[in-house]
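your task:
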Amino acid sequence: MSNSIKLAILGLGTVGTGVIHLINDNLDELKRRCGRDIIITEVGTRRQRDDIDTNIMQNSDLMAIAASDNVDIVIEVIGGTTLAKDVIMQAIQHGKHVVTANKALLAEHGNEIFAYAEANNVHVAYEAAVAGGIPIIKVMREALAANKIDWLAGIINGTGNFIMTEMRDKGRPFADVLVEAQELGYAEADPTFDVEGIDAAHKLALLASIAFGVPLQFDSVYCEGITGITLQDVSYAEELGYRIKHLGFAVRRDGNGDSDAAGIELRVHPTLIPQDALLANVNGVKNAVLVNSHPLGQTLYCGDGAGAGATASAVMADVMDLVRVLGSKDNNNQSHSDQKNHGHHVPHLAFIPEQLSDTPILRAEQMITGYYLRVHAYDSPGVLADITRILSDAGINIDAILQKPAHKVGQVPVIILTLPVVESQMNLAIEKIEKLDTITDKVVRIRLDELA
């Protein structure tokens, strides 16, 4: 048995550099935990770095590194969905295990990548792709393996959570907080992926596949950002006992008739949740995932969702798992090609590939949630009666109504909270409300969930 496992790190940005520091700082501890020396033999970088150990080969040819005989495990932290995919497929073809933090790549191409890995009897590990240092992938694939997961809800983008926290705590408008998030390095110069929910949708696609044993289906995730959230709505939500969080939901629905279809809801959107809910009190750039499973019940996993330390920690946890797999095969005198990967390791999406389910992903109009509605109307008799009649006719039950003082002369905002209803019914009701002569603006809607 070889005494060392050889790593290649592709990409020396924040995460790649963090992995090098973690290995150097904890080298003895790593060996004690997995029984092998872990050595970085090659790194992929566009330019030569003076701060890298001279024993480590630096190379800008990532494809060559992925095929190198001097590498056992390839760590991909370059990002993107083109070169990163080519490099990972090259590594798999040459019998290398892969560790990646690339949620966009896996959400969009994971089915192909995982199938190729299975065919070549290697593993692609991706704990760092979701929620940084929180071991949510490991928890769902292993610790909750005996549970039936009914739903999960998560704050899985720290930038969005930072913005919503600052708006609530300090009364700052969205645009101002976004600028600060960019200055602090929480948001990119182009923040679209964060504030429009695309980043969270990538992560949700991965979590949902593990939770429900379905193929990755990123294109089926309903996605809505936080750019339209106003201080007015944040304040009204607080007054009603709720907080607005940007959440991802994966919900299993067994179905109960025509309007309640069976399938899986995948949705990312701003959501009112009770102020005393666990997720409501996860603030700043923290991430958190709440999982409701049977028989365990609700469990919350919370921590840093990004940054060099958190992500490097997740990357190295995957590396150590793979080191143990390699050690097990060596001890049994077996090569990579001698046996099926899931004989030694949990399958990529927690379910044996042949057993993945064809449960449908529900369309947006089939989703079921409660709603916060803000309606601006002329202050005249019968307006509230007309609105409540339309909602009642649509089969929508009202939970609370709040009428606020006029912001403009003769116009009042009316806030309505509803019980859960199918989205298509709400769409029709809002269309009718907006046609009333007494309504002065578009109806603002934000979904509401009691997380129960």
